[in-house]
Write a structure and sequence with these properties.
The chain has one domain: Lambda Exonuclease, Chain A. It is globular, with a radius of gyration of 16 Å. About 40% of the residues lie in helices and about 20% in strands. The two termini are about 30 Å apart. It has helices spanning about 5-15, 15-25, 35-45, 85-100, 125-140, 160-165, and strands at about 55, 60, 65, 70-75, 105-110, 115-120. Bound molecules: iron/sulfur cluster. Iron/sulfur cluster binds near residues 18 and 19.
Length: about 160
């Protein structure tokens, strides 16, 4: 099976391997879930002025800014609590851009906290991304999802009803 890893899968990878499997097998999370809704609203209302959305292969980049010769890609996130998974997602985008010959830097935006974080694809982080891509592919190939293991993130997860019923 030829399987395309997406930025969303990369983000899930740092949170929950079961979520990776569910997402890869296209069990769509509850669209009405408040956290998903908040994420969507912030996405629509913040950084309106310099907002652009580009589609890149199977990836949608939330924001692109070109400052001098630098290409900056941005991701708007509702909270820095999930900074690690947001960072992996952005690194994945940077990796995909590099594969296409585009060298870029990334910035994470946390508008509610007025915080920004620069994200750069160093050789070490690139290795980490390649490793994660391979592991995501491996998880997705399994016939069944990894067993349900309750974690703090579950209460914010769109698959909560599915996992806990
Ligand atoms: S509810 Fe919990 S175990 Fe289930 S997919 Fe979400 S984070 Fe993973």
């Amino acid at each position: 099976m030829e399987f395309e890893v997406t930025g969303a899968l990369m983000q899930s990878y740092t949170i929950c391997k079961r979520q990776v499997w569910l997402m890869a097998h296209q069990l769509v999370p509850d669209q009405e879930h408040p956290y998903i809704e908040i994420g969507r609203l912030i996405d629509e209302n913040s950084y309106q002025r310099d907002r652009k959305k580009i589609h890149f292969e199977n990836v949608v980049l939330d924001l692109v800014r070109i400052e001098k010769d630098n290409i900056l890609i941005g991701e708007v996130k509702k909270s820095s609590k999930a900074a690690e998974s947001a960072k992996m997602q952005l690194l994945f985008y940077l990796y995909k851009l590099k594969q296409s010959g585009i060298s870029a830097k990334g910035q994470l935006f946390f508008p509610e906290e007025r915080k920004r974080e620069i994200v750069e694809l160093t050789p070490e982080l690139e290795d980490k991304i390649i490793e994660a891509i391979n592991e995501i592919k491996e998880i997705a190939l399994h016939e069944l999802p990894p067993a349900f293991l309750k974690i703090p993130y579950c209460k914010n997860c769109g698959y909560k009803e599915f996992c806990m019923s």
